[in-house]
Amino acid sequence: MLVNAYWEPREARLSSYAKGRGIGDCGSAESYVWDGAMFRLIEAKLMDECRGSSHWITVWRAGRR
To answer: What is the largest CA-CA distance in the chain?
Structure first.
């Protein structure tokens, strides 16, 4: 499920951002690109626990070709 989805047409990028609480120190964010056939995940960030830090951990980043 995408939360706060945003489409960037110039880059063919779809982004999603979900905060766990108001200050944004937990939640998840993902970015997808359209490859002509389907959306492909290129980056995912996650912070499961609300720790007071806005620096989320990158859990997936697509390699460059």
So the answer is: 39
Per residue in 23-35, pLDDT tens? 888 999 999 999 9
Pairing of strands 57-61, 27-34: unpaired
User: Quick one: what percent of the chain has pLDDT higher than 70?
Assistant: 97
- Percentages of the chain per state (helix, strand, coil), in multiples of 5: 0, 50, 50
Nearest residue to 49 (alpha-carbon basis) of 23, 20, 29: 20
